[in-house]
């Protein structure tokens, strides 16, 4: 059972990905009838994907007009280096996204098929075991969380567009063209980040359904509790494998997302420092838009990190929910055997999300991520102090 509100939100995320050709193939989603069908890979979508990827790659050239280099960054070497680093990271992000889509298209389509098979196989388990009201409340909560993230992303885009327009030293067709291209790439990054966040929402939904199933199974006195517990254990293992497969396929794209988030936040905070010490001239509206950009950018990053931690925690804390079965006064041998098998399965299988197989994404990483941003901004501020001396 898929609530219509969550279905409409995920449909919106899906259309963002389709528009920027970030899907292996198109899907037909009908949230009201609870059906998701995989469409055939059409030649039209292949041509559209080729056109979009080529357009996003070639238009980076127009992001570097001479007018921008003669503006407020002309006498600041740090801002000049930062500007060309931004161009380079956008180039790498586009390459990472579309090379992954093209080189791993078959794996991505197979992932879609496996997801649909998984959904059809365990939908009956959810309907039979999980309380319908609890499932409804969970899906409405996740839909609200996804809507909040979408609003934060678009608010960040709006304030970024206003700030970048105010920072133009000369307004002509070339500077406006460069600004338009930068905003298109910002929307591309927004669609990638939104898709990543939507993926985390779906994974968190499935792991939370497993928790609801265990809680419901513990309260009910079912005659086939042993078979139900075995089905839940199978569902947890396949959800874990699906999560690992998904993060494995999109590993390069996920790495590009975190690099973009890191460098973009440093860029925003350093510009805020330049505006506060009046190195970059700005009026009252510029300060308001700049503060809004900082607020929504940090808020979006924190929400992203929080959802990432929720997915890992909801998967790895299933053993805590399973412990409640030990409180039952009488457990037959067959059920105890299934409990022991499920416990051993949970001990041997933990969800660990890494970028490039090196950095583990968990709570310490979130703190290190924020601390590294602040440290880099402080280091860049020292160049300003040295220049003033």
TrEMBL record:
<feature type="transmembrane region" description="Helical">
    <location>
        <begin position="12"/>
        <end position="29"/>
    </location>
</feature>
<comment type="similarity">
    <text>Belongs to the insect chemoreceptor superfamily. Gustatory receptor (GR) family.</text>
</comment>
<feature type="transmembrane region" description="Helical">
    <location>
        <begin position="285"/>
        <end position="304"/>
    </location>
</feature>
<feature type="transmembrane region" description="Helical">
    <location>
        <begin position="45"/>
        <end position="63"/>
    </location>
</feature>
<comment type="function">
    <text>Gustatory receptor which mediates acceptance or avoidance behavior, depending on its substrates.</text>
</comment>
<feature type="transmembrane region" description="Helical">
    <location>
        <begin position="151"/>
        <end position="171"/>
    </location>
</feature>
<dbReference type="InterPro" id="IPR013604">
    <property type="entry name" value="7TM_chemorcpt"/>
</dbReference>
<feature type="transmembrane region" description="Helical">
    <location>
        <begin position="83"/>
        <end position="103"/>
    </location>
</feature>
<keyword id="KW-0472">Membrane</keyword>
<keyword id="KW-0675">Receptor</keyword>
<feature type="transmembrane region" description="Helical">
    <location>
        <begin position="249"/>
        <end position="273"/>
    </location>
</feature>
<protein>
    <recommendedName>
        <fullName>Gustatory receptor</fullName>
    </recommendedName>
</protein>
<dbReference type="GO" id="GO:0005886">
    <property type="term" value="C:plasma membrane"/>
</dbReference>
<keyword id="KW-0812">Transmembrane</keyword>
<dbReference type="GO" id="GO:0007165">
    <property type="term" value="P:signal transduction"/>
</dbReference>
<dbReference type="GO" id="GO:0050909">
    <property type="term" value="P:sensory perception of taste"/>
</dbReference>
<keyword id="KW-1133">Transmembrane helix</keyword>
<keyword id="KW-1003">Cell membrane</keyword>
<dbReference type="Pfam" id="PF08395">
    <property type="entry name" value="7tm_7"/>
</dbReference>
<keyword id="KW-0807">Transducer</keyword>
């Amino acid at each position: 059972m898929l609530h219509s509100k969550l279905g409409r939100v995920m449909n919106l995320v899906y259309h963002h990905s389709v528009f920027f050709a970030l899907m292996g193939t198109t899907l037909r989603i009908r949230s009201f009838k609870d059906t998701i069908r995989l469409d055939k890979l059409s030649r039209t979508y292949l041509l559209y994907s080729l056109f979009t990827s080529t357009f996003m790659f070639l238009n980076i050239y127009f992001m570097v007009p001479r007018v921008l280099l003669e503006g407020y960054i002309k006498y600041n070497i740090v801002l000049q280096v930062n500007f060309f680093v931004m161009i380079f990271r956008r180039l790498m992000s586009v390459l990472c996204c579309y090379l992954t889509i093209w080189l791993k298209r078959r794996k991505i389509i197979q992932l879609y098929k496996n997801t649909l098979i998984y959904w059809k196989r365990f939908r009956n388990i959810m309907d039979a075991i999980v309380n319908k009201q609890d499932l409804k409340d969970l899906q409405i909560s996740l839909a609200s969380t996804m809507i909040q993230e979408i609003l934060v992303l678009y608010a960040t885009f709006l304030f970024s567009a206003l700030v970048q327009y105010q920072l133009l030293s000369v307004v002509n067709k070339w500077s406006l063209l460069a600004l338009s291209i930068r905003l298109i790439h910002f929307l591309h990054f927004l669609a990638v980040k939104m898709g990543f966040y939507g993926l985390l929402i779906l994974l968190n939904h499935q792991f939370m359904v497993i928790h609801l199933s265990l809680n419901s199974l513990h309260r009910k006195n079912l005659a086939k509790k042993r078979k139900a517990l075995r089905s839940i254990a199978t569902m947890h293992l396949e959800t874990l494998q699906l999560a690992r497969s998904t993060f494995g396929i999109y590993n390069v794209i996920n790495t590009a997302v975190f690099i973009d988030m890191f460098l973009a936040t440093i860029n925003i905070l350093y510009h805020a420092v330049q505006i506060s010490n009046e190195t970059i001239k700005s009026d009252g509206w510029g300060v308001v838009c700049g503060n809004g950009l900082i607020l929504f950018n940090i808020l979006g990053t924190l929400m992203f990190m929080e959802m990432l931690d929720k997915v890992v925690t909801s998967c790895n804390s299933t053993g805590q929910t399973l412990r409640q079965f030990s409180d039952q006064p009488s457990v037959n041998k067959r059920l105890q055997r299934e409990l022991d098998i499920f416990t051993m399965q949970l001990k041997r299988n933990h969800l660990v999300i890494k970028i490039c197989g090196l950095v583990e994404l968990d709570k310490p990483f979130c703190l290190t991520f924020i601390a590294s941003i602040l440290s880099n901004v402080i280091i860049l501020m020292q160049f300003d102090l040295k220049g003033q001396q």
